Amino acid sequence: MKDREKEDLLKAAMAVAAADGVVKPSEMGVILGLAVRVGVGQISMEHMIEAAKRDPAFADNILMSSQRSARLAMELLVAQARIDGEISDEERELLVRLASRLQIPSNAFQAIYREGIARADRIRKSRGL
Fold it and tell me: Domains (ranges, CATH) in the chain?
């Protein structure tokens, strides 16, 4: 993924985590990993998360250079939303909006959604959750 795509993915991950109003510690794992890859420090990351909580359109400008990158990004975002054991209505609505923004067809999104859930459930199981 290009640097710009990593930044957009970080913003989207923050928006998904903040969609239900509470960023859980399990959701922070993905955010922290992405922030390190992008080079975003702790204070900037905290400000970005607060902005994501305030602005429902925080990640609406997400762009990926290829359908492969878009699919990978969406799978990660679905997994992040599920990592706490559930996907809230607000998170699901945001995921659908982001998939539309990334021009992922509905049938492809359904497959990506299932894969993201399976990925998160495997991680949860490996951690004994």
Answer: 3-126 (1.10.3680)
Asked if residues 69 and 5 have their Cβ atoms less than 8 Å apart, the reply is yes
- As a whole number of angstroms, the distance between CA 1 and CA 65 comes to 8
Q: What 3-state DSSP class applies to 129?
A: coil
Query: What pLDDT is stored for residue 103 in this prediction?
Result: 94
Q: What are the φ and ψ backbone dihedral angles of 48, each rounded to 5 degrees?
A: -65, -40
User: pLDDT digit string (tens) for 23-49?
Assistant: 999 889 889 999 999 999 999 999 999
pLDDT tens profile 47-57:
999 999 999 89
Closest CA to 113 of 83, 76, 88, 85: 76
Cα(24)–Cα(83) distance, rounded to whole angstroms?
9
- CA-nearest of 68, 80, 66 to 11 is 80
- Per-residue CA distances from 90 to 33, 76, 97, 105 (Å): 23, 17, 11, 20
